[in-house]
Amino acid sequence: MKRFAILALSALSLGSPALAPMAIAQSATPVAASQATADFYIANMTCALCPVTVKAAMGKVKGVKSVKVDFAARSAHVVYDPRQTNAAAIAAASKEAGYPATPKG
């Protein structure tokens, strides 16, 4: 096994045409999935634990990539894949957790 690894590395460093497609294929990355953002007003947040609950509820929605909750502003900023979910589904998840969310704008 070590011998194969040494040969493969040697061929790669020498620019072996046989290994070039493999190196290119491994370095290619798929196009990033499309992303959308939504901002929400969040009702009923009264303590420091409320944002944790809102973040967890919104984060469980399939397609949600990140959630940032601002307790002082009573708001949330969500990045999601619009092919998998939408703002209404994210707001519904927050509402089910006891924190009604209204899209801004």
From TrEMBL:
Gene Ontology terms, MF aspect: metal ion binding
Record's signal peptide: 1-20
HMA domain location: 36-102
Transmembrane segments: none
Classification lineage: Bacteria, Pseudomonadati, Pseudomonadota, Alphaproteobacteria, Rhodobacterales
Matches recorded under InterPro entries: HMA_dom, HMA_dom_sf, MerP/CopZ
PROSITE patterns in the cross-refs: HMA_2 (PS50846)
Record protein name field: Mercuric ion binding protein
Gene name, Swiss-Prot/TrEMBL: merP
The keyword Lipid metabolism is assigned to this record: no
UniProt xrefs under CDD domains: HMA (cd00371)
Pfam family, one: HMA
